[in-house]
Amino acid sequence: MMDAVTRNRPMRGLRSGLLCGALIALLCACGGPATGPEEELRDWVNRGVAAAEAKERRKLVSMVSPAYVDARGNERDEIENIFRAYFFRMNNIELVTSVEEINVVGDTAAELVLTVAGAGTNDGVLGFSADVYRFALELEKDDGEWQLISARWGELGKELR
């Protein structure tokens, strides 16, 4: 008959192996190469989409620089009001994005061109809304975070303003 020490050796070996594997995976994940600007910008877009779909206005506004200004005369406060009105009108929001172009200048400035298809339900006559817009965004990296500093947009096929 096996004693308790002999019976538990296989389990101890398995647990030690799993623990060792988990530690190696954590160390590899933490010690991986730094993310480049293009990957950071794609992540910035993905975080913005997730925040918009969750109607997290504050999170979206935090991605906009306090120095934001665009050709339409909007500043950060007006952009926040646009988000507020849109989120108020829409019951739910679904977005599909396509990044067309990313131009990085010196690791701290970037221009993004993307198409965003948006759909959502509302309390209107049809009960839903769908649009496709094209955006040209200018971003600046401030304290390690990308911030939107200006934007132009328009319906797909129309001039960006």
CATH C-level class of the largest domain is: Alpha Beta
Please tell me the overall pLDDT: 85
| Structure summary, number of beta strands | 4
| Biggest pleated-sheet summary | 4 strands, antiparallel
Low-confidence stretches: 8-33
- Which strand order do you get reading across the main beta sheet? 1-2-3-4
Query: Which class do the helix and strand fractions yield?
Result: alpha+beta
Which bin fits the share of residues in helices? 25-40%
> Which term fits the overall shape?
globular
First-to-last CA distance: 83 Å
The topology string of helices and strands comes to HHHHEEEE
CATH fold-level assignment of the largest domain: Nuclear Transport Factor 2, Chain: A
Number of domains: 2
Number of helices: 4
**Strand percent estimate:** 25-35%
Gyration radius, to the nearest Å?
23 Å
- In CATH, the architecture of the largest domain is Roll
